[in-house]
Amino acid sequence: MKYTAELDFAFSRSQRRLVRQWALAAVGLLLGVQLGLGVWRWQAAQGALTDLQAQQRRLVDQGSRRAGDKLSPDQVKLAGSVQTMLGQLAVPWEQVLGAIEQARPSTVVVDSIKPQVQEGSVTISVSCPDFAALNAFTQALAQQQALRDVMLVSEALADNGGGTLRATVAAHWWVMP
Question: What is the pTM (predicted TM-score) of this model?
């Protein structure tokens, strides 16, 4: 009988424990390196953000000084009138005028329409024969989708003694998407 040598390549318990420990150590080292790189990138990004914000503040300060130094009084007046004109162009005129026209009874005459662009509102001056017509106009305006917060600001009888009632109605426009 011949005996053959048995080779046992299986790890013993202590060897398996050592391999597990080395594997866990390698995974821990890999996670630690990844975490360190992430923190380093985050700190670099924060530093870059701080630098960019400081540069933006410097540019804004320079721009505001330049703009204030170069404008003459005539240019300031012209810039104000251009701002007013652009603001009035921003009023949704089609919806506002359509709502007023739909709500206006035949006895009510619209004298003027004045927009307040910063507030998003419009002031409507009207003339009508009596308070019932004015009330009907105000109620109909409140039912329009393009206007909200409709309110009667003032009413008074005209000085000419003809019995005509003059009133001012204010409303905010509502721009529908």
Answer: 0.52
| Beta partners for residue 154, in sequence order | 168
Residue 134 belongs to domain with CATH number: 3.30.1360.100
Q: How far is C-alpha 165 from the geometric centre of its chain's CA atoms? A: 41
Q: How far apart are CA 141 and CA 151, in angstroms?
A: 9
**For residue 153, what is the enclosing H or E element?**
strand 147-157
DSSP 54-88: HHHHHHHHHHHHHHHHH--HHHHHHHHHHHHHHHH
Q: How far apart are the first and last CA of the chain?
A: 98
Lowest mean pLDDT among 67-71, 73-77, 150-154: 67-71
Query: Number of structural domains, the chain?
Result: 2
Q: Which domain does 107 fall in, by range? A: 91-173
Q: Using an 8 Å Cβ cutoff, are 105 and 137 in contact?
A: yes
Place of tokens 């007023």: 100
> CA-to-CA distance for 135 and 169, rounded, in angstroms?
11
Q: How many residues does the chain have?
A: 177
Whose CA is closest to 126, among 165, 77, 68? 165
pLDDT tens digits for range 91-119: 788 888 899 999 999 899 999 999 888 78
